């Protein structure tokens, strides 16, 4: 038995992240080990979770992976925790196709209750029909209670409590309408503001939750049996290969799914390097350049000539290299920054990545290649490739979540493969793929 819950909301911007971070820090302050999870492909919320809880978060995505994989991940990473907290995505029922892939579907799959965060700004007793709808819309979703956000006064809260009483939804407390409890805007909708102190924010949010939310009651109503991981599967995962993998990891490149990294460690030894600070690429059988924020560090990246030359030589000599999004931009000839200036990069691909005329491109992606259809990923970027000189790999087809073919490119030069899509291979048999690679 252990407390387990999913933090959901009626819509994005309701305060899920603020509540989750405060809850995680409050639990940590109580000397409880809280294992955070994130519904969906988001990289930034998982970084927030780590800062607040002191425990690395895990993405649970029902498009990128199977239901059995999700259950196994939840069991694997939650087994040694005192509490398991999953932050939802968007509105509770918002998925890539109706309810599919939604926070509600994840809560149903894992059998965990939902604590609903409801933005009560400009709303009083009208919360009643909203709560009634969420309580009765789907009998498989257990709305265990509600926490109201942006509550202006005790009088305001009294109306909201009456709405809970009349609809039979337990009221767990509220978060006052305070400017200091707003997470700052993120660079391109994703990044962490460098001037924002997440540690102070988490502490303040935790103080608010301890004062205005009945945390003891929340833990009690979410206490339930926990399914242990499958030992036979764990023994299979203990098998290790003998290759060496170099993974870029620094302030510019750090968008890495936790389970992706775990799978790479099955192939062999993983070493980390920094395109920002290290002089050259370490010796490796495979190099992985994940996404991140190269556009924020263009001066430093272009000044590190020895690293640029080292990666270029590795690719020219036929080294195995995979680059995603920001990593793919880094392999371009130049990046045009937000300041309009051109910055020289590695030059594996004769193309220009630009931050000018930014337009958001996002969505799930499915790759088909020689009959293989289980390679999936997610695309999220504002940059674009201007007049690409490298042809996209012709025998790969890429589709969105609705099965419609997209214009997403996947480039190849010798043994270097790069594209905008962040791939998820946490469920793939990488040992078999590596042993049978072309």
Automatic annotation (TrEMBL):
InterPro entries with a match to the protein in the record: CbiA/CobB_synth (IPR004484), Class_I_gatase-like (IPR029062), CobQ/CobB/MinD/ParA_Nub-bd_dom (IPR002586), GATase_3 (IPR011698), P-loop_NTPase (IPR027417)
Alphabetical GO biological process terms: cobalamin biosynthetic process
A GO molecular-function annotation: ATP binding
Domain of life of the native organism: Bacteria
Start and end residues of each CobB/CobQ-like glutamine amidotransferase domain: 244-426
Stretches assigned to the CobQ/CobB/MinD/ParA nucleotide binding domain: 9-188
Site keyed Increases nucleophilicity of active site Cys: positions: 422
Cofactor(s) named in the record: Mg(2+)
EC number: 6.3.5.11
Reactions that this protein is recorded to catalyse: cob(II)yrinate + 2 L-glutamine + 2 ATP + 2 H2O = cob(II)yrinate a,c diamide + 2 L-glutamate + 2 ADP + 2 phosphate + 2 H(+)
Keywords on record: ATP-binding, Cobalamin biosynthesis, Glutamine amidotransferase, Ligase, Magnesium, Nucleotide-binding
Record has S-adenosyl-L-methionine as a keyword: no
Active-site feature positions: 325
UniProt cross-references to SUPFAM superfamilies, sorted A to Z: Class I glutamine amidotransferase-like, P-loop containing nucleoside triphosphate hydrolases
Protein's pathway: Cofactor biosynthesis; adenosylcobalamin biosynthesis; cob(II)yrinate a,c-diamide from sirohydrochlorin (anaerobic route): step 10/10
Enzyme class: ligase
Note, other: The a and c carboxylates of cobyrinate are activated for nucleophilic attack via formation of a phosphorylated intermediate by ATP. CbiA catalyzes first the amidation of the c-carboxylate, and then that of the a-carboxylate.
NCBIfam families: cobB, PRK01077.1
Function: Catalyzes the ATP-dependent amidation of the two carboxylate groups at positions a and c of cobyrinate, using either L-glutamine or ammonia as the nitrogen source.
Family: Belongs to the CobB/CbiA family.
Domain comment (free text): Comprises of two domains. The C-terminal domain contains the binding site for glutamine and catalyzes the hydrolysis of this substrate to glutamate and ammonia. The N-terminal domain is anticipated to bind ATP and cobyrinate and catalyzes the ultimate synthesis of the diamide product. The ammonia produced via the glutaminase domain is probably translocated to the adjacent domain via a molecular tunnel, where it reacts with an activated intermediate.
Entry protein name: Cobyrinate a,c-diamide synthase
